[in-house]
Write a structure and sequence with these properties.
Length: 479
């Protein structure tokens, strides 16, 4: 009987990856620390808003949950739209410059958010903050990766990615204290002095890297088309489910505009000499499979953190502090899981760990779909889901980026990382739109929350299935 060979993608030790651990310079670790703190700042501001939805809505007369939801969706849209453009600008005029400019813009928008007189001026300030955050994220990672030897880049990406869960772990507790003592406006304002302090630290510690020689103009058309496409699709989902109706002419027209804009974006990206997103990288199977899984996982992984606070507030009558403490377990587990499995991914099959993490996320959401009830039972119904979901996230999402980077040469690191984060935030915007479309304004019934959880479960299953597409070995399709 013939022995079936083990596919290369499923071997325990990934091919073409050194077994020895090369030394990392102190300069590289310091740069990684500063870059990760930038990610913490962006993540904290995003996550802390999840606990402030009801106070924000109550402070503006006539504001609906969907109005406040647009502030979160707008943050995701702005981040996704500007991420690749910020990456391109960083390559042209300097990564350190863009990183520091993002910090200053983040500080300014934090102040504008804190003093916003209406819900829509708050939403616009949040979009401005998203642009600042989008400048921070790609520039920070591209400043760091070239300083690490190839055998240690999985660890670097993992630690940088762990900064997101770290921020999410800090945010609920801090947000609960601030909401209980000073209100939601201080919650936004506190980011301003932190961003200014980080600007000074980055100015002193980070070193500008020489930009590559670039001969072509920025892809402004691609940026415009991508932004219109994503915003239109989110509007069609969110407003179509709550206001216009799924089959209304307005919903269909807005959705058609979004699809047309996306088609325009794709055609432009394939023709432009230096497109905003290098779609030609999708010719490499390891890139397109990981990015597909990244997008599908992203629909659930960001927006699900909104449903838990809303449910604990509205059905279990938890205080802000109880909700903050209740959701903190997830980010803590996610951060620890990211650090541990990123290091393990240097020795074992990273794609196998991603598959396991995606399966754990299915179990987490499935458990809550079956168990969730109106009687408060945090330790049986909520805590297992939040902790397991954090564990699965840390095993899957950061390593997906590492797997994708293994399929490209160093000159494409910025483009692949930009593509990864752009798709993640775009997926988050779509997931948030789906959440607010399904979660009806007048809902006093648990059925609406069950519909949202079922929506998340479906995409978690599809994401897990996509990770079983064989990808072969890194380097097979490099050109």
């Amino acid at each position: 009987m013939a022995v079936r060979p083990v596919p290369a993608a499923d071997r325990q030790v990934p091919p073409d990856r050194p077994r020895t651990r090369e030394a990392v310079s102190g300069r590289a670790w310091r740069a990684l620390t500063v870059a990760s703190l930038g990610t913490v700042l962006v993540g904290f501001n995003s996550t802390a808003t999840n606990l402030a939805l009801d106070p924000i809505q109550d402070s503006f007369a006539g504001a609906t949950a969907a109005d406040v939801g647009w502030g979160i969706a707008g943050f995701m849209i702005g981040t996704a739209a500007f991420l690749p453009l910020a990456g391109r600008l960083a390559d042209r005029i300097g990564r350190k410059l863009i990183f520091q400019s993002g910090l200053l813009l983040f500080a300014l928008s934090a102040v504008l958010s804190a003093v916003a007189p209406t819900v829509w001026t708050l939403n616009l300030a949040r979009v401005l903050q998203a642009i600042g955050g989008a400048a921070i994220l790609p520039a920070s990672l591209s400043l760091v990766l070239p300083l690490f030897p190839e055998s240690r880049r999985t660890t670097a990406v993992g630690l940088w990615s762990a900064a997101g869960p770290l921020a999410a772990g800090i945010a609920p507790g801090v947000a609960a204290v601030l909401l209980g003592t000073a209100g939601w406006r201080v919650l936004y304002f506190v980011s301003a002095p932190v961003a200014v302090l980080m600007f000074v630290v980055a100015w002193r510690l980070l070193t500008e890297l020489p930009p590559p020689e670039i001969k072509h103009r920025l892809d402004v058309i691609g940026a415009t088309a991508g932004t219109i496409g994503l915003a239109s699709l989110v509007a069609a989902i969110m407003q179509g489910g709550r206001v216009w109706g799924w089959t209304s002419p307005v919903t269909l027209a807005v959705a058609a505009v979004g699809l047309a804009a996306f088609a325009w974006f794709i055609l432009n990206s394939l023709r432009h000499p230096e497109p905003l997103l290098n779609l030609h990288l999708f010719r490499r199977r390891g890139v397109w499979v990981t990015q597909l899984a990244n997008f599908l996982v992203g629909i659930t992984s960001q927006s699900i953190w909104l449903i838990w606070p809303l449910f604990m507030f509205n059905f279990w009558d938890f205080s802000a502090f109880q909700v903050g403490a209740g959701v903190t377990v997830g980010p803590i587990v996610a951060g620890a899981s990211t650090v541990f499995f990123s290091r393990l991914g240097e020795r074992w099959s990273a794609i196998a760990l991603c598959r396991t993490g995606a399966a754990i996320q299915i179990c987490a959401v499935g458990w809550q779909v079956m168990r969730l009830g109106t009687a408060p039972d945090y330790f049986a119904e909520m805590m297992p889901t939040i902790a397991l979901f954090g564990l699965g996230w840390g095993m899957c999402v950061p390593l997906l980026n590492s797997v994708a980077l293994a399929w490209v040469e160093e000159k494409y690191f910025g483009e692949v990382s930009g593509l990864f984060n752009t798709l993640r935030y775009a997926a988050s915007a779509i997931g948030i739109a789906g959440l607010f479309a399904l979660l009806k304004e007048e809902s006093g019934s648990i059925i609406y929350y069950q519909h949202v959880l079922a929506f998340f479960l479906v995409f978690a299953i599809i994401a897990a299935v996509s990770l079983w597409i064989p990808i072969g070995r890194p380097g097979q399709q490099r050109r």
